[in-house]
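Retro notes
What went well: the complex prediction finally ran end to end.
Inputs used:
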Amino acid sequence: MTTSSEAGRRPRAADRRPRVVLFDVFETMLQVDALGARFVDVGRPAHEWELFFTRTLRDGMALTLAGAAPPFGEVARAALRTTTGHTLSDEALDHVLAGFAHLPPHPDVEPALVALAHARVPTYAFTHGSAKTACDALDRAGLRTYLRGVHSAEAIGSFKPPARVYDWVCGQVDSPLDRTGLVAVHSWDVHGAVRAGLVGALATRLEGRVPAVVEPPHVSATRVDTAVERLLALPA
Amino acid sequence: MTTSSEAGRRPRAADRRPRVVLFDVFETMLQVDALGARFVDVGRPAHEWELFFTRTLRDGMALTLAGAAPPFGEVARAALRTTTGHTLSDEALDHVLAGFAHLPPHPDVEPALVALAHARVPTYAFTHGSAKTACDALDRAGLRTYLRGVHSAEAIGSFKPPARVYDWVCGQVDSPLDRTGLVAVHSWDVHGAVRAGLVGALATRLEGRVPAVVEPPHVSATRVDTAVERLLALPA
């Protein structure tokens, strides 16, 4: 889907084992579909969580494309109002949005974090949501102890996946682009990371397959732990 | 939501009647929810059209943020495969996607186009979908005769709403940014246009209200024809 003549195109990282790994948070580490129960609590259909979450990302990306994105929480609140037809009270909006800090972990994540710890690969969470919310949620989910830190692109007014967010986070964790891995279940996040020059690992449990429109990840597998095993099996 | 210190921020266009008007196509002129019937045809729930369409825009914007977007049709096909869990045959995918060229018009659009014609304001369609599909759909919907042309940001490998797409289309229609209007039901599209220096008109019939996270449009109204009346009522 990309042309080799594209201006400013960065070289693809070699297939090498990363020295630092970044983990996407929502949907990759934590089960966002658990928000469905909170939609039911406020009188909405459970399946609406997915339209709401997709719309939040779409709007955050649109605002990023147009110049600068406000914090994730503000974009999510506006998207929730729109998705629910302006029928929810402020209390009901708060109840749904508070759910982001109470999401259960996906069961294939802790084994992946254990493998990275055993391999002595420093691991960080990297979200465009609020770093505070992500910290709280990862604490409650029992995953935070495996992480050296939690970073959010919110700090630079951007949603993922432009190259500048991966440049920024690699600076934060003091790791060269081509020795940094990104693990996610969203193919567009891995696509952005690979195009920025990182080593991409896609778990396909959310999307089913690698879509035809993205840059191929360096490794992929259905489960997150298997994808991380393949990342660690790359030559040093 | 935006800071005055933001680098490269363009000045907001004055409240003046535009000399040329651009119309968004899908959802603004044409009823995309009509795709719901085609989801049912292929054994999927009708409401899935909205998640599919939102995902298509999110993915197209993500690919744009990461460097360059493939054509809308490719992004939509990949999003349809993912949204339907890879259960649809190629024929079923074709059937749903062909629906984009057969969408009925929103009833508040023809009166708006008549008003613009009476006012001698040249009007163009501006989409990030395929220009050919948009032309076919607008022909069938009986709206194409009011339009001087149909332009797609696909020509420059981008989805809306970065400033460069509005710069590009204003060049195509030979109109200065601050004398060009953009009419849409998506607040993020009007936001992008206003931040690029155009005159923005938002019809809120889709989203219900102007969201808190976007740049205020120059005019807004529930219906498209009323929004266009307000645009035409601005001082010359």
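What we learned: The beta strands of chain A are 20-23, 123-127, 149-152, 180-184, 199-203, 219-221.
What to try next: split runs per interface for comparison.
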